[in-house]
Design a protein that fits this description.
Elements (H helix, E strand, L loop, with lengths): L8 E5 L18 E4 L2 H7 L6 E4 L16 E4 L7 H11 L4 E5 L6 H13 L5 E5 L3 E5 L3 E5 L5 E16 L8 E4 L5 E5 L4 E5 L2 E9 L1
Parallel strand pairs: 1-2, 1-5, 2-3, 3-4, 5-6
Antiparallel strand pairs: 6-7, 7-13, 8-12, 9-10, 9-11, 9-12, 9-13
Length: 210
């Protein structure tokens, strides 16, 4: 899945579930940002971190153990989550394409809060979440991508989507309405390699199986 904006990609690691693909070293990211305690698991696997962001309330490693080339960016404003503050910092450093790891898998209120924060930055940033099962993102009103046949593709309204059309999914949708509490579009399948998803109103979260 490609990002929406031209330019380099960065990695942002949160305090949720430890990413399962750490052996890849994430060398293709221009910069790596860690929110507070996420520095711990990255450091344990020998992954270099460029910036650590947060109030450091969960940073269990002594600052003397943090490499000199890693910058600590302390944030004080408790009105915003560390994820929100990290996105704001990354945006002002000129990066627009962000791969987020560790947003889910722990406390579910944090997960829902992370989704809400990502929606807040949707127009400014291209944010793709990753976990061991999926990658997922808030869709533009017109989205197309390539994926393997028979892989699961779930469409989740946030909280409502109108005028939904799909192409390339096993269970096609035309002039569809999705709404939390009524009908949602989870567990569909890729019928062809090219998938198109368009809608007219609302916000749509797309989950794509790895």
């Amino acid at each position: 899945m490609n990002h929406r904006f031209y330019g380099p990609e960065v990695g942002l690691f949160l305090n949720g579930e430890t990413p399962p693909f750490l052996e890849k070293k994430f060398s293709f990211y221009k910069k790596i940002f860690a929110v507070d305690g996420a520095f711990y698991y990255l450091n344990r696997y020998g992954i270099s971190v460029d910036y650590v962001i947060g109030d450091f309330d969960s940073l269990s490693i002594s600052k003397k153990d943090v490499p000199l080339e890693t910058l600590l960016l302390k944030t004080y404003d408790q009105r915003y989550t560390d994820f929100d503050k990290a996105l704001n910092i990354i945006y002002h450093k000129g990066f627009l394409n962000i791969n987020v790891w560790g947003a889910s898998g722990m406390e579910q209120d944090h997960f829902l809060g992370n989704l809400s924060t990502a929606l807040k930055y949707k127009k400014k940033l291209s944010i793709i979440f990753h976990d061991k099962h999926h990658f997922y993102f808030f869709s533009d009103k017109k989205t197309s991508f390539y994926h393997k046949k028979n892989k699961k593709v779930s469409l989740f309204p946030f909280p409502k989507v109108e005028g939904l059309y799909t192409y390339g999914l096993k269970y096609s949708i035309k002039k569809g309405l999705l709404k939390i509490g009524k009908n949602i579009g989870i567990r569909n399948e890729a019928y062809s390699q090219r998938i198109e998803i368009n809608y007219k109103k609302g916000e749509l979260l797309i989950f794509i199986e790895r």
